[in-house]
Design a protein that fits this description.
30% helix; five-stranded parallel sheet; alpha/beta; 27 strands; 3 domains; 545 residues; Rossmann fold; 16 helices; Luciferase, domain 3; single chain; GMP Synthetase, Chain A, domain 3
């Protein structure tokens, strides 16, 4: 059964019920910004606006876009890219793609033009749907990609010359079901991930993986038609959609909030009567600080209906949940672990009944198996550290067109996560450290090699290594260990100024001038650096704080 059947059912069962709300808080632009300065969830500089659609309208929009794609020659197995900020059109477009039998391919909206082109080629996208924020970046690559990959523009601004107008084209399309047969074994989506090299990998999933994520989410958090889910993270993340899938499965309402300020979150939760919050650690930290400092007052909001707050994407400090429960004693709490390769969150989860085990990521999620193995693939004893492996219907099919990388992480149906973990005496799983060098800062993956390559472009830099250091708010921050050229003059300010060319989230938070240790084969000895500057296992330090 494909997840599109849930949409059809909801449109018939709840035709007039509001299912999606988009809220943009009032945001005054104080300075001009480029996309490199985007926060994870930026508000659109404009007055406050609110848009909503019902389940029937949602389904009709998806059908119209499906017919548009079919009229343009898109067929089962083709790929359609989505390069858009969170908005009310995003999910209907995603489902319209699925209804054609094509694969939905969401793009990170902070990709540079070169990264966009690389991923378009890697995933062999046939059509790209994009928003106004990406016109400049796509103009840079149109000469090389435009003829191969037609582009459809979604927005209110004048349509760029190299694209077709979404609104104009869908208006003439039928709203009836396209009638393309789908099975669990059909390919459904490609998501992007990156290894330690920073080069994206294209993760291929079947419809059965998407369906399993619906069942996992609803089983873990018990969504009902009456629940209202506040969704803030970007929809290109597997986590955002897969948590929303619990609402899709039951016909619940979701609110897409553009912005992460504490006042935005509390005001929206109050006005929309949200019952479920999914937050990243920095947003929860900021919210608690605003309440503790008196900047915000709970009495100004109606929040009695809130029943669940859950967090994912990075290790959760015990102190955060302790503070949260003091302010919101009646809230259930959960944390989830997962990868894009395991169709997002839920292959391991804490469980709302296990709040006393905060610090652990939990036990195997609904329909999942978990094991911890040594370097030979043998399960380790309780209390010993090994690599975390997961198995279940949500595991990816492969890295698209990359059999070598696939073979490295998929073995006999098991996904080797690259995360080091251990089990306690009650079989709760704790993350200890990361086998991979990826840094997770505020829920966003940062790939050290990308920053290292950039910093090598600074004349005074002889060598550089980037590692993650524990941070109470962000979980981790990127720290650059820089070895200067002999006789060169270089300051922290010089490095930070040079790094303004990077997107803000990739810029190092800390600069350390020191020698960069390398082994006999020339590889940076990052475990040694982490031992020097962290003094202990990084993830363990985060969860214990």
């Amino acid at each position: 059964m494909p997840i599109t059947d849930f949409l059809i059912h909801n449109s018939q069962q709840y035709p007039d019920k509001v299912c999606l709300v988009e809220i943009n808080p009032e945001q005054k632009e104080t300075r001009k910004r480029s996309y490199k300065d985007y926060e994870l969830i930026p508000a659109t500089p404009s007055p406050y606006f609110r848009r909503e659609i019902t389940w029937q309208v949602f389904n009709e929009k998806a059908n119209r876009f499906a017919h548009l794609l079919l009229s343009r020659g898109i067929k089962k197995g083709d790929k359609v890219g989505i390069l858009m900020m969170n908005c009310i059109e995003w999910l209907p477009i995603y489902f319209g793609i699925l209804k054609t039998g094509a694969l939905a391919v969401p793009f990170n909206y902070r990709f540079t033009s070169n990264e966009i082109e690389y991923c378009l080629r890697l995933s062999e996208v046939d059509v790209l749907v994009f928003g106004s924020e990406f016109i400049g970046r796509l103009e840079e690559i149109y000469d090389s990609m435009g003829k191969r990959c037609p582009m459809i523009y979604v927005g209110n601004d004048p349509v760029p010359a190299f694209a077709e107008d979404y609104k104009d084209m869908v208006s003439d399309m039928p709203s009836t079901e396209p009638g393309i047969p789908l099975t669990d074994e059909d390919y459904a989506a490609i998501y992007f991930s990156s290894g330690t090299t920073g080069f994206p990998k294209a993760i291929l999933h079947r419809h059965k993986a998407l369906m399993h994520s619906c069942r996992v989410e609803q089983n873990h958090h018990g969504q009902t038609p009456e629940d209202v889910f506040l969704c803030i993270p970007p929809l290109y993340h597997t986590g955002a959609k897969m948590h929303w899938f619990g609402s899709l499965m039951t016909g619940g309402k979701a609110v897409l909030l553009k912005g992460t300020k504490p006042e935005y979150i509390l005001e929206t939760a109050s006005k929309e009567q949200c019952t479920i919050l999914w937050l990243l650690v920095p947003w929860a930290q900021d919210l608690l600080f605003a309440l503790d400092s008196g900047e915000l007052n709970l009495k100004d909001y109606k929040l009695d209906q809130l029943r669940l707050m859950h967090i994912g994407a990075q290790p959760v400090p015990r102190s955060l949940i302790q503070r949260w429960k003091k302010i919101f004693p009646h809230h259930d709490y959960d944390t989830n672990y997962g990868l894009s390769e395991s169709i997002g969150p839920g292959c391991v989860h804490l469980g709302i009944e296990n709040i006393e085990k905060v610090g652990a990521i939990g036990k195997p999620g609904y329909g999942w198996e978990v094991k911890i193995v040594d370097t030979m693939g043998r399960e380790v004893a309780q209390g010993e550290v090994g690599e975390l492996c997961v198995k279940g219907p949500g595991v990816m099919t492969c890295y698209y067109n990359d059999p070598k990388a696939t073979a490295e992480v998929l073995k006999d149906g098991w996904l080797f996560t690259g995360d080091m973990a251990m089990k306690d005496e009650e079989d709760f799983i704790y993350l200890v450290d990361r086998k991979k060098d990826v840094i997770i800062s505020g829920g966003e993956n940062i790939y050290p090699v990308q920053i290292e390559d950039f910093l090598h472009g600074f004349d005074a830099v002889k060598d550089v290594a980037v590692i993650g250091l524990p941070d109470r708010r962000l979980g981790e921050i990127a720290a650059a260990i820089i070895e200067c050229q002999p006789g060169a003059s270089c300051s922290e300010e010089d490095i930070m100024t040079f790094c303004h060319k990077l997107p803000r989230y990739k810029r190092p938070h800390k600069i350390i001038f020191a020698q960069v240790p390398r082994n006999a084969t020339g590889k940076i000895e990052k475990p040694k650096l982490r031992k020097i500057y962290c003094s202990e296992n990084l993830v363990a330090a985060q969860t214990r704080s």
